Amino acid sequence: MSMQQAAVVGDMLTDSPIDYVLHGGCRGADSQFDSIALSLGLPREIWPGPGTPCSDIERSGSIRIMDSMPYLQRNREIVTRCAGLIATPSERLAPLELRKGGTWYTIRHAFIKRTPVVIVWPCGEAEPLLPQ
Question: Cα–Cα distance between 58 and 115 in angstroms, integer?
Fold first, then answer.
């Protein structure tokens, strides 16, 4: 995440009445998200994919690490278990339906499941997307 994304995500987690957070345990944005949640004292549930080392994840605080599963299945499980999704893509690209990668797959799946999504762009702009 960019510094702006991390700041916005921190504010969102601080201002939301959430019980716990879920993420995929990958390096980069997932580990940054985990650090923010840990600093706020939020319980964390981590859903690693195959070969995801979770090496950047601090093992303190309230943490539950689930069994590994294939990435796309894991992403669907995260969407199924969450009330809302915060996504922090690394760049702004083509229309939603043309974007590739796990983040965009997960966003599209959230739309299918009618799960609210907030995309936090690298500039720090938060864009809520409510499924129809």
Answer: 28
